[in-house]
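Recall from the previous chapter that SMILES is a line notation for molecules. Here it describes magnesium ion.
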Amino acid sequence: MFAAMAPAVNNPLAGFCRDCLARQPGISARRCEACGSPRLARHAELYRLSLAHIDCDAFYAAVEKRDRPELRDKPVIIGGGKRGVVSTACYIARINGVRSAMPMFKALAACPEAVVIKPDMEKYARVGRQVREMMQALTPLVEPISIDEAFLDLAGTEKLHGMPPALVLARFARNLEKEVGISASVGLSYCKFLAKIASDMQKPRGFAVIGEEEAVSFLADKPVTLIWGVGKAFDEVLERDGIRTVGQLQKMERGDLMKRYGTMGERLYHLSRGMDERRVHADHEAKSVSAETTFDTDLASPEDLVPVLRALSEKVSSRLKKAGIAGRTVVLKLKTSDFKIRTRNRQLADPTRLADRIFSTGLELLRKETDGTRYRLIGIGVGDLSDAARADPPDLVDLQSRKRALAEGAIDNLRDKFGRSAVETGYTFGKGRNARPQRDGDS
Ligand SMILES: [Mg+2]
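With both inputs in hand, we obtain:
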């Protein structure tokens, strides 16, 4: 289909405004049609890409400027004393030639009027946590690289946010400025390697996109040092072999590269071609998705507990599906009437995000615990999270399970359209009164 014939909203070149987030119906205007801002995001793959690298701009210096507004237009250096080195320089100091890791005496020679502030690591850690929490509200797949930067995988979150990842990220950058008082740069791509490069391209307050289509040509004229792992020493090795640009690597055979440089050759082969399979791995704290319910009165019988387990499994499943992730370990949690906690878990052959598999595994675990003990709480969760791509492979042996998976997909669609109560399974239908939850909790 011709791009010009597509409706404006689906035409990626129509883009959006990074300041007011308004979609831009026109594909060539230089300023936002709603607010006049020149900060427009446009890219042919804008609404298809979902892997991001977010990096706060001159983080320590930005936090200090936020707390001391009188420093806003002054060059600020965060670092330790005259004999120390520069930890962070604000952008005004950078214009004057100050760089990170530069000895302080050199920095002050380049920029004598700079205000030098001793780092307050506790404060930066506090702000870093706040930024991290804002990221984790976007997707469970947040992989922190340092105090102020992280990879985010937003695949499958469009329904949850009601907008594509690109807009979610622009909104994040805007909220960060409004709510935390510092800025960040966003790199959006299809893999970690290029997302990280993109976040560095338009700093500060950047928003750069590298799509699949242009990856190889984008990389061609770049120096080999752009490749992850090519440091000073390896750069010299490559230079000796006459290799200066990524484009040269693109023309070399895989076998040749591996013969010359071993495992590093393999990496050079893939990354030079924009091929990077590394996944975004979530922070340890966010390594499970679960739901639990505390009862009005303690319950002991399977008849009472099973429908609750089913409803909770559906809740967990729907969260996994929205986040585009799956888990391999199913965990059942029970709290007895005397507040003792029992957790039981089972590992599956493949990661799952299906309510049916979560429920049936939980049910097996629950059967062994329904021995007359009275419970005040039941919870179910999945851990060992991964990307949903390898979840629930078609089970050729068990055709029934395939049918159930398809049925579940249909139920999900109906619920998306008409709400959760539109479809109830046999397990939960009409069972609301016995097990009315007192409160819901997530962990
Ligand atoms: Mg940074």
